[in-house]
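no rush on this but wanted to send it before i forget. what follows is a protein written twice so to speak, once as letters and once as structure tokens for the fold. mainly i need to know what kind of three dimensional shape the backbone takes. thanks a lot i owe you, the record is right below.
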Amino acid sequence: MKPVDEYFLNQKEPFQSIMLYVRSVILNTLPEIEERYSYKIPFYNIGKKPMIYLNILKGKDYVDVAFVQGVLLEKQFPVLKNDNKRKQVRSIQLKTIEDLDHENFVALLHEASNLLSVSKKAWFLD
């Protein structure tokens, strides 16, 4: 079994179901995306550049769907929040699968993919 699959299977509910659902939407929406296991969490890369990662922050009761270049997307997609005072990353916090607006999320994935494909690098803020 791949480490990323093990990661998902080791999550408690409702996190496991939320993450597996988000994963399926990402993989079905962007067939070119590459799923990787880095820093002990699942990352989704376009080419070699990270676009999204899924995480459960300590002490939080939600799945953090984090967009690496989220700061560039937050005006167009106000669902993206600046949690933990991150400089560049913005995320969607999901407590239930129903919290995810599927159509808006698919549009966000396409926009993030387009943005990343024209960027020289994914991490541009120090």
In short: The longest strand covers residues 49-55. The beta strands are 34-38, 41-46, 49-55, 63-67, 90-94.
